[in-house]
Amino acid sequence: MTASRDMWRATAAAALGANIELTATNKELREALHAKRLEAKELDNELVTAKERCKTLKCGALSLDAIHRKLREDVNAQHRAQLEEQRAALQREEDLREQIEDAKAENKELTAFYSTVVEALMEENDTLKREANEAKEMEAATAAMIAAAQSERDYWTQCAQAGEDEAAAEMASAMQEEVETLSAENQERKQELQQTQEELAVAAEESAKAKQELEEMQATIVIIAAVAIGVASLISVLLDRNGEAVSLPSFDPTRVKVVVENERWYPFPFSTWSKKLLPTDRYNYTRIDGKTQCDPPESTSLAAGEQWVEKAWRVEGMGSPDGWLYSFDFPSTHYTENFSSACVRRRIHVRGFTESTPPTGPPSEMLVGSKLMVGDQLASPNNRFHLFLQRDGNLVLYDQARAIWASNTHGKDSKELLFQTDGNIVLYGGTGLPYWHTATHGKPITRFVLQDDGNLVAYAVGGKARWSVR
């Protein structure tokens, strides 16, 4: 009995323990289930939020799609309008070119007609001159004959007065009649000569008038053609331009002489570039401002105390193979390549010079067009920092005796550091190869300065730094 009771108690204790474990497990499961339910609720909330966001995004996508369609339609409409404008501009340009061709043909016909008239007048003029010369020769011969007849008449008259014989008197009378006859003929020839001279003067006046009319006609047609080409150029601004647009750079007037050469295109009668400009154009040769007239490069002289540092003038390429820059008119933007509606062109000639007694000490900056040769240097105003182009080919910046920057071109055959007109500052070798540069091509760099703080800076227009060693 006691054993059964103990077994029951043990079983009850085991069951109680198992119940306690089951209760704990159930509690854990309930807590886990509650957590899962909370998690599911959060997921449901997130799903609702996601659905709302998806709905919003769908609406936004629809709106963006509508906006995109509208923009595309607007762009297409604008493109079509531009195409129509370009077609109309091309048609107007074609019409103008046809008018120019008609004017050229008419000019050719008028030139041939006036040339024929001028040639005929010149031939008539030559004939009249020849007749006038013959009349003068006849007049001189007649005068000689009259003088001889008068001399012989005087001789026979003297003989008759001396009472030699009647034959002498008759001879004197006959000679007198011959003198009178020759005098009458001479008078007629004088009148003919005067008439011929008057005709010659009239012919010369008509010839000069015809020449003047021909020159005026040609000048008028040239001006008309220039105006027509100018109109065609304005029409084709957006349709026909080649190369890169460039602006004239600035140069250091204390180191570089600059001459700008200007020319205009004449389609006829010669179809060539000419230095014969229109009255409203610039001079054939000007300073960089385009207004101040100057001599051609080969005729440009230096002032007292100046000397050339370059052996000859050179043409600034500025991206153009031969240095010529083309445009519709001189004040307009110029381009590096020729195009069909270009009416004018210009190119820049430069040559370095210096004063015979240069200032003491190295400079602290470089300007457009200047260069630093091997052995030359820049020095900061306080003379602490120096930039040397060394003979070993390296470009080195020193803080007194300590190198703080270099171009790392040691061992190269570096020849010069050139401040180019395109804004780039390039270290060139003896063969013309670039070994180092500031990568400022196309930027409006005006000064390359070594400052008192040791910084080497390339400044653009307005004082903005576009490159520095720091």
What does this structure look like?
The strands form five sheets. Strands 2, 3, 4, 5, 6, 7 and 9 form a seven-stranded antiparallel sheet that branches. A four-stranded antiparallel sheet has the order 10-19-20-21, with no helix packed on it. A four-stranded antiparallel sheet has the order 11-16-17-18, with no helix packed on it. The protein is an alpha+beta fold. It is elongated and about 225 Å long. 49% of the residues lie in helices and 20% in strands. The chain has two helices and 21 strands. The chain has helices at 2-161, 166-235; strands at residues 245-246, 256-266, 272-274, 285-286, 306-308, 314-315, 325-327, 334-335, 344-355, 365-367, 371-373, 377-379, 385-389, 395-399, 402-406, 414-419, 425-429, 434-437, 445-450, 456-460, 465-468. Helix 1 runs antiparallel to helix 2. The chain crosses the membrane at residues 219-239. This is Mannose-binding lectin, putative. InterPro entries: Bulb-type_lectin_dom, Bulb-type_lectin_dom_sf, Peroxin/Ferlin. One of its GO terms (molecular function) is carbohydrate binding.
- Number of extended strands: 21
Mean pLDDT: 77
Our Rg estimate from Cα atoms comes to 51 Å
User: SS-based structural class?
Assistant: alpha+beta
Shape: elongated
Distance between the termini: 104 Å
Which runs of at least 5 residues are low in confidence (pLDDT < 50)?
235-241
Strand content range = 15-25%
- What's the main sheet like? 7 strands, antiparallel
Percent helix, as a range, is: 40-55%
The number of helical runs is 2
Query: Helices and strands, in N-to-C order?
Result: HHEEEEEEEEEEEEEEEEEEEEE
